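Notebook entry, cofactor series.
This is the third protein in the set we're modelling with a bound small molecule. For this one the ligand is zinc ion. I'm keeping the input format identical across the series so the outputs can be compared line by line later. Sequence and SMILES below, as received.
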Amino acid sequence: MARGNAVKGTRLGYVSLGETEHGEPTPKVSVTYWCQNGHGVARNFASDAQEDVPSEWDCPHCGFPAGRDRENPPVPSRVEPFKTHIAYVKERRSESQGQELLDEALRNLRARRGQQES
Ligand SMILES: [Zn+2]
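Returned structure with ligand:
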């Protein structure tokens, strides 16, 4: 009985002297992620959790994926195909062609509206 109490007391003493009294005993590593637009995002991770440090991080500025290699940022794979298509169309068509298409679209729209209203 006396023995049991002694062991218990030692354990409690050990716990009270634990690392929590010193705040954060675990050293941190700062990892910077770089996105394709040159944004740097610094993140802190516990140094003993290196395996948990993700290789990519979403850039909070533009939403692009950011990687740890500044020279080779990850290529965004989640870019909406719609945006790419618009950029492609803009590159392909001259301004006048674009204006023609716009006019035609407007004419069609007005014609359709006219039909619906009449
Ligand atoms: Zn960014």
